[in-house]
Amino acid sequence: MALDFLTILLAIIAVAPGVALFLQKKLIHSVVFLAIAAAASTLIFLYLDQVLVALLQLLVFVGGLSTYLIVAIAAEEKQVKLASRVRFLLATVMIAAVLSALLLSLPAGVAAGNDFSSVAQASFSDYFALLLIAVLLIFASAVGSVLVIKKFARLVV
Amino acid sequence: MVEFLLIAAVSLLAVALAGIISDRHFVVIMLAIELVFIASTIALAYFFTYTQGADSSAVPMFIAIWAVAAVEVITLVTFYVYMKSRGFNFDVSKLSKLKW
Q1: Which of A11, A19, A54, B65 yields a CA-CA distance of 20 to 30 A from B47?
Q2: Domains of chain A (ranges plus CATH)?
Q3: What is the pTM of this model?
């Protein structure tokens, strides 16, 4: 019963930020909710014992992409400030407590196929071409982005 | 009752698709596409956990999804800066030209 409740709670936590993303008036709030949705998906991965995938999802989506988006969108916002520091601190403590309680209740263990050595084995042997294409794709788009932004960034900075 | 996780992935996909259909802001539509990627990673993790053998790895497929998502975000920021600097409207219904 507790497991069912946890599953339903995780499902709600995953979907709610997605819904909230479209209900915001300010663009920066939508981006923050996208980051929350990505962070919520890592909780599901932890629940499914996919620890490495959860870690990578957190690094790629929350640490990388969402941060990049927030910084880029916030550069355009003229009035970005915290409404209340006390409220912010209280929310931080409450969210940390709830997430910690959820994580501590998860069963321990790692899925057999997704440990680091098997991923490295698969990525650098069977799927090396896929890895190479992914790296080249990101590198090409990053170089193109730098060239375009360098030309048109005078209104941003 | 782990099927709720699959329902969550499908619901997230539905929310994202509904957002793409209903919203006309360029950036919000791109964020909705990011939500589609997140939903696809949840569905992939679910199916890998409950259908695949223990000796296989789903991470290469995750890497493919993350790579496309990263490129999409880079493209979004580039277009955002470009459109903002040129003073274009972010309403996609008014973007009728591919070249300005």
Answers
A1: A19
A2: 2-112 (1.20.120.1200)
A3: 0.77
